[in-house]
Amino acid sequence: RNGSLPHPPYRVPVLGDIVGVDPRTPIQDSTVLAGRLGPMFEREILGRRFVFASGADVVGELCDEKRFEKFLPPGVENLRDIGADGLFTAYSHEPNWQRAHDLLRPAFTAGAMRGYHEIMVDVADDLIEHWEGRSRNRAGTDVSSDMTKLTLETIGRTGFSYSFGSFARAEPHPFVAAMVGALTYNQRRSLLSIPAFAKPLFARSDRRYADNKQYLADVLADVVRTRRRSTEEFSDLLQIMMDAAKDADNPNALSEANIGYQILTFLIAGHETTSGALSFALYYLANNPEVFERARAEVDEVWGTGKPQFGQVPKLRYVRRVLDESLRLWPTVPAFGRGARADTVIGDDYRMAAGDWAVVLVTALHRDPVWGERPNDFDPDNFLPDRIKARPAHVYKPFGTGERACIGRQFAIHEAVLVLGTILQRFDLQADPSYRLKVQERLTMMPDGFRVQPTIRA
Ligand code: HEM
């Protein structure tokens, strides 16, 4: 055992720090604990030890790529059952990680976003049409559900030229329910090691998981089949991978199985997180009238009443700050793992042997005292350039860190700013004043039950 750390007060033999553990809210519970136990602490649950780091100094050390690398904590490692050595769930030493990274990186540069812009505008138009109907019928709408439709449609059409027909459905495509079921199953199972005699108790949820997994595989097969049948020309992510696979000289060619894992990875990683980010940003916009008006004034000035051109999206500096600040308070990927490359000491005296790992608790890092005296308050001006410069490095990590940081960062930002700008340009938003923010954890974070009444702007 490598040094002791503060832990919750009521530790029980065998079960560990089980008092007060709610399998539905591990991140929010750990964030509260971070406030009490300090920058590094541990939780032991059924014999499994989780070390959490949330202080600006220790996280700064964990982000040093020379000393630490991405680590797959149990909740992410379990996802290899779905994603295998796809980009998100690959170990850094697996050859397919480097290959896929090198092959797909050019499709995610800031300039490459130009190629996705028109599709993103088209999908935003689908949302507008849907909300215009809601406005006319005076019917409120569930924000997370609509944002999930929008982001799944966007990654489907941009990455794979595949439409899920999301806006023609009352609920998001069944792909989403199967994905959420599979993500939460793996996350909750990572907290439990079930002894053989207790396995029958879990047979039903195991069966449901098998069904969900099969459904995801069916969607994946349909994406590939649709492409193989088509005679059109494509230049999307799928085509990049398929062309490389046919090119014997391409060192980054991926196998058919691995292409499948990449498709699932992008369909999941490419929509769920951005949907949450948009939903939280809309929550704050709808509940902060001054912020809303300032953001709208910027859209009116920069975009006017027309459709946004590609170059006009990054000019919405204030809207971008609203997004950044929403991702500060609710980083939709709330934690990531870091493993020591060699024996080392972090913080004052916490020893880690090579291979030991810690979870960076981004939710708590983003409310560290470096964020000022009222870190829980929503204030987009936290992202004014002067304030950014005045803070230490590595205190804002919604997109992870180092070489395994999010490949889709520019994509998510372009899409989210474009959609927020479009909504501000067209609609007034009325939130239910009695709604208190409730956050659902399903590996990512998402507002639960947040509804708005959109009204076409007078
Ligand atoms: C990795 C966050 C949007 C694709 C990551 C990681 C984070 C993250 C924190 C690193 C995880 C770790 O260290 O274990 C987010 C957030 C998003 C977002 C907050 C939206 C607001 C996207 C989009 C795509 C995407 C739009 C694709 C179009 C990926 C992939 C990886 C990744 C493939 C794995 C990269 C690698 O390991 O090489 N993301 N992401 N993400 N993200 Fe995102």
Averaged pLDDT: 94
Give the radius of gyration.
22 Å
Structural class by sheet pairing and helices: alpha+beta
Indicate the multimeric state.
single chain
- The span between the termini is 65 Å
Strand residue percentage: 5-15%
Major β-sheet strand ordering: 1-2-8-5-3
Largest sheet: 5 strands, mixed
SSE run:
HEEHEHHHHEHHHHHHHHEEEEHHHEEEE
Q: What is the 3D form? A: globular
Low-confidence spans: none
Helix content: 40-55%
Number of strand segments: 12
- Write out the distinct hetero groups bound to the structure: protoporphyrin IX containing FE
Number of discrete helical segments: 17
Keywords:
458 residues, alpha+beta, three-stranded antiparallel β-sheet, 12 strands, globular, binds protoporphyrin IX containing FE, Cyt_P450, oxidoreductase, metal-binding, heme, Cyt_P450_sf
Write structural notes for this entry.
The longest helix has 27 residues, at 203-229. This protein has helices spanning 26-37, 56-62, 74-77, 80-83, 95-104, 114-136, 143-160, 174-189, 203-229, 237-246, 256-269, 272-287, 289-303, 317-329, 362-365, 385-390, 409-426; strands at 40-45, 48-53, 68-71, 141-142, 335-340, 344-346, 350-352, 357-361, 427-431, 439-442, 444-447, 451-456. It is an alpha+beta fold and 458 residues long. A hairpin with a 2-residue loop joins strand 1 (40-45) and strand 2. The strands form 4 sheets. The protein has a 5-stranded mixed sheet. Strands 4-12-9 form a 3-stranded antiparallel sheet. A two-stranded antiparallel ribbon has the order 6-7. Protoporphyrin IX containing FE (HEM) binds next to helix 11, helix 12 and helix 17.
